[in-house]
Amino acid sequence: MASPDDLKFQEFDEAADLLSADPGASTLSVSALSGTTAGTQDTKVDLSEDEENQQENSGLLGGENKTGGFWTFEYYQSFFNVDTMQVLDRIKGSVMPVPGRNFIKHHIRNSPDLYGPFWICATLVFSVAISGNLSNFLSHKGDGQYHYRPQFHKVTIAALVVFLYAWLVPLGVWGFLTWRQGTERQTSAYSFLETVCVYGYSLFIFIPTSVLWSIPFQWVQWTLIVIAMVISGSVLVLTFWPVVRDDTKVTAFATVASIVVLHALLAIGCKLYFFETALEITPTPTPGHLTTNTSMGQMN
Amino acid sequence: MAEVDEANKPLFAGLSDVSISDDIPVEGDISVPLASHSADDEFSTLDEPVKDTILRDLKAVGNKFVHVMYPKKSSALLRDWDLWGPLLLCVTLALLLQGGSSDSKGDEGPQFAEVFVIIWFGSVIITLNSKLLGGTISFFQSLCVLGYCILPLCVAMLVCRLVLLLVSATTVSFIIRLLIVTASFGWSTFASTAFLADSQPPNRKALVVYPVFLFYFVIGWMILTFSPSS
C-alpha cells in the first residue's frame, strides 16, 4: 500500500544527478523540440547556414516524415507538406541560380516535395504542345492552302517525353551517385526525392521558354534555348558539383557533363520536334513564287 | 423461511422500485418492427414506375446544374453528390468534339477516348492533389464538383459549333469563339473554386486552385481549336 509520502509530488532528482555525472549528454527539453520542428518547417525563420543544426533536425524529422509504409496514404501526404510561399520560393530559386547556393541545401532543406515537380511537368507538357500547335499555325500563316489542325497527338508525345525524363534521369543520377558514394566514401549524396525535386524545379524555366518558342524566327528560338540551358543547367551543376567534386577528376567531369548534355538534348529535341520556323522570311518573292501565286489566284 | 418467501414473490419484484430519475431524458419511439418495414417499402424503388425513378435522378442532376450556373455558397452539390451529371457532360462534350476533319495524317483533334481520359483522369488527379495537400473534402464530392463545373464549357462548345456554322469569316468567328471560351473558362474556374476552396487551409489555397485552372484551360483549348471538316 502506497504511503501518502509516495503520492505527493517528487522532485526528479535522478535527471539532475545524471546530468551532473555526464555534462556532455544531450538533453531534450520540450521547448527545444517544438522550437526545432517549427524552425525546419518554416523556411522564413531558419536562415542560418548551420549545417550541424540541420543534420540533427534531419535525423529527427527524417524518421518522422516516413510515417507508415508506402501503401498508406499518410506516406504520400508527407511529400505534399508545402505551402504556397514555399513553392514560389523554390521556383524563384530555380530561375535565379546564384553561384555558391546549392538548390537542395538552400531551398529544399531536407523537406522535398512532389507537388512542384509533378505540376511543373504537367504544365510543361501542355505548354509545349499548345505552343507547338501555335507555332505550326503561325509559320504557315501566309500559305493559302493551309488548313488549321489541332494536332492533339502532340500532347501524348510531349507527356511521354517530359514525364520519362523527369523521373528516369533522376533515378539514374541518384543510383550512380549512391553507388559512387558506396565505393568512394564521399560526403552524403542526395536522396531520390531530392534529386527528383531538383530536376522538376529546374524544368520550370522551360515553361515560359516554350511559350516564347512559338515566335517563328530561328534566331529568337536559338537565343532562348541558350538562355534556358544556361539557367537550368547551372541550377543542376551547382547542385551536383559539390557531391562529385571529391571523386576522381574524370568521374566528376563526366558526371556533370552527362547531366548537362542530357538536359540540352531534352531542350533541343523538344524545340526541333514540336516547333517549326517560318519557311521563308524573304520579303522579295522570287518570280517562280509569283507565277504559282497568280495561277492559284486564277483557279480561285 | 426466508427462501419460501423469496420463492413466493413475483418475478422481478425487486425491480419494481427502480425509477428513472428525471434528469435522464428518455427519447425515441417504440415502433413495432412491422410498421418500420412498411415505412421502408415506400422508398423501395422496385414497385414504382421507371419514369419516376429516372425523373427523380434527372431532377437531382438538373438542380445541381442550376447551382453551377448561379454559383453561390450552398452545400447542395457537396451534400448529395452524384456522378450522373459529370458522365452526361463528359459524353456530350466528347461527342461534340468529334466531327473534325478526318485527315489520314492523324493531325486532327482529340479522339473520344482522349477527351474521356483527360476529363476523368484529370479530375482524379486534382482530387488526389487536394486530398494530399490536406483538404477536408471527400473523394467523390470533389469529383462531383469538378465534373459539374464543366457545364459552362459544354454550353460554350454548343455555341461555338453554332458560330462555326453561321459565321463564315474565319477571323471574326475566331474572335467570337475566343471570347465565348474565355468567358466560360472563367465561369467554370470560379464556380469550382467557390465550392472547393473552403476545404483547404488558407496558406495552400493557391496550390489547390492552380491545377483546377490548368484543367479547365486545357478543356477550353480543346474547344477553341475545334475545326470542322472544310
From TrEMBL, chain A:
Pfam families per UniProt: Yip1
GO biological process per UniProt: vesicle-mediated transport
Record's keyword annotation contains Transmembrane helix: yes
Domain of life according to the entry: Eukaryota
Keyword rRNA-binding: no
Location(s) in or outside the cell: Golgi apparatus membrane; Golgi apparatus, cis-Golgi network membrane
Keywords from the named record: Membrane, Transmembrane, Transmembrane helix
Molecular function in Gene Ontology: small GTPase binding
GO CC terms: Golgi membrane
Membrane topology value: Multi-pass membrane protein
Chain residue ranges for the region called Disordered: 30-63
Primary subcellular site in the record, as a coarse category: Golgi
Boundaries of every Yip1 domain copy: 95-267
Biased segments, Polar residues type: 30-42
Membrane-spanning segments: 114-135, 155-177, 189-213, 219-241, 253-275
Coiled coil: none
Family the UniProt entry places it in: Belongs to the YIP1 family.
Name of the featured protein: Protein YIPF
Source organism: Clupea harengus
UniProtKB/TrEMBL annotation, chain B:
Transmembrane segments: 81-100, 112-133, 145-168, 174-196, 208-227
Principal subcellular localization: Golgi
Name by which UniProt lists this protein: Protein YIPF
Keywords per UniProt: Membrane, Transmembrane, Transmembrane helix
Keyword Transmembrane helix belongs to the record: yes
InterPro entries recorded: Yip1/4-like, Yip1_dom
Domain Yip1 as annotated: residue spans: 70-222
Subcellular location(s) per record: Golgi apparatus membrane; Membrane
GO CC annotation: Golgi membrane; trans-Golgi network
Domain of life, source organism: Eukaryota
Similarity-based family: Belongs to the YIP1 family.
GO biological process, one term: endoplasmic reticulum to Golgi vesicle-mediated transport
Membrane topology of the entry: Multi-pass membrane protein
